[in-house]
User: Fold this.
Amino acid sequence: MGFFDAPALNHHEQIVFGYDEETGLKAIIAIHDTSMGPALGGCRVWNYKSEKDAVRDVLRLSEGMTYKSALAGLNLGGGKSVIMGRVRDVGNEAAFRAFGRLVDSLGGRYVTAEDVNTTPQMMEWVHEETDYVAGLSPEMGGSGDPSPFTAYGTFVGIKAAANKAYGSDSLEGKTVAVQGLGHVGIYLVEHLSKAGAKIIVTDIKEDRIKDMLKIKNVSAVEPDEIYDAEMDIFAPCALGSIVNDETIDRLKCQIIAGAANNVLSDYDKHGKILLDRGVLYAPDYAINAGGVINVYGEFEGYSEKRSYARVNHIYEILQQIFERSAEDNIPTMDAADTIAEERIRKIGRLKQMHRSGKRLFSKI
Ligand code: NAD
Assistant:
């Protein structure tokens, strides 16, 4: 099968391979879809086993960004980039400036940002060569750490799920289990505590647990015990694929709603099981969109207040997803995909017509 026939290509608009002999930079930028706007997505450094693995990863991630931004109601397309290699070999100024030039060569069709293994410093190097970088530190004129916004969006999403499952979005007295106390988890625990929830936390790093136990209504369990904990709501905020064949029967909650990406190890299989059992799953890319919503603010003059106001919309977006899932009796992930695709079709079409100078109403 030739490259252009590969299923992973899945409607991608453009894939750019960048190589810089001097620094050893090997970068791939994938632009999935720009019908809604510039393709925004982070840059990941990873020591891939093969070029094929790197291509597969960047294509999967960029497509995900198209759906995430479309569903969040943003005027952004989807893209992503990967730099092949180890951070200690490629995490230097020369390599990242070479990458910045590659980004700049696309004239704004792709806008990069931080992702796994990239740092604010690396993005500042990129910024030396291009303006098409988002999420810089506030000192550099950017919107800074997205995690508090992701955490707030996750909290709002948990309330929307509670409203659907219990007929009220009050979390007073509800038990929420939070897996992972990193950048997102710690802020989420604070929101939940203020809302009167009982919180069970876990992390593989004990010092993180110690800090959280100082907060009202927080107790802790060992990392593997979280799946068996007595809880109403499970909020995974650590790793992906943690709802899998081994854990799904252990979870006795009514809701799964957390910030982690790719929570279900097999979307079709586990999504269907949760639907059949009446467990409400808040699709990951809908509930964890707070960070990208915040970064989007940079495209129109950043305001923290406006970002928080926008993040509140995650509540309505999840309501729509839950309604569609119930009406069509389909897993919530499928409902989310359908809503995102509808928006790209309807709004993306308007934007394309506008760009090409066509009139929207040909008879007028
Ligand atoms: P992080 O790396 O800061 O925190 C993850 C935490 O999970 C760490 O404290 C780690 O020790 C813990 N952990 C790892 N394995 C664990 C295990 N087996 N059991 C319990 N705890 C474990 O990451 P983060 O920025 O807080 O993001 C959390 C999740 O949310 C990730 O899946 C990330 O992809 C996703 N996400 C984050 C953002 C954001 O704005 N930071 C945005 C969208 C999605």
User: Anything to note?
Assistant: Residues 146-147, 150, 179-185, 202-205, 208, 223, 237-239, 259-261, 288, 291 surround nicotinamide-adenine-dinucleotide (CB under 6 Å). Residues 357-364 have pLDDT under 50 and may be disordered. DSSP finds 13 helices and twelve strands in the chain.
